[in-house]
């Protein structure tokens, strides 16, 4: 992954370009990152072993079904 290529279209912040904040906000929105940035989405609590095992079983059943 070439990071400089991925962000080459983003104008560098130089204090003169007032649309920089809008451009960054739009980029974050395009990648569904706004909730993470604003803190509306946080890392889930750790699951208990039984709950984790149940979810893994459900995921395995869905994958087998597909």
Order of helices and strands: HHHH
Strand residues, percent: under 5%
Round the mean pLDDT to the nearest integer and report it: 79
Structural class per helix/strand content? mainly alpha
Biggest pleated-sheet summary: none
Broad shape: elongated
The overall number of domains is: 1
Total number of helices:
4
Q: Kindly state the percentage of residues in helix.
A: 55-70%
> Can you count the beta strands?
0
Low-confidence stretches: none
Rg, rounded, reads: 20 Å
Give the N-to-C terminal Cα separation. 31 Å
Describe the SSE topology.
Elements: H1 3-6, H2 20-30, H3 34-38, H4 49-65
Overview of this structure, please?
- The chain is an all-alpha fold.
- The protein has one domain.
- It has four helices and no strands.
- It has helices at residues 3-6, 20-30, 34-38, 49-65.
- The longest helix has 17 residues, at 49-65.
- It is elongated and about 55 Å long.
- The model has no long low-confidence stretch (mean pLDDT 79).
Essential attributes:
66 residues, mainly alpha, 4 helices, 56% helix
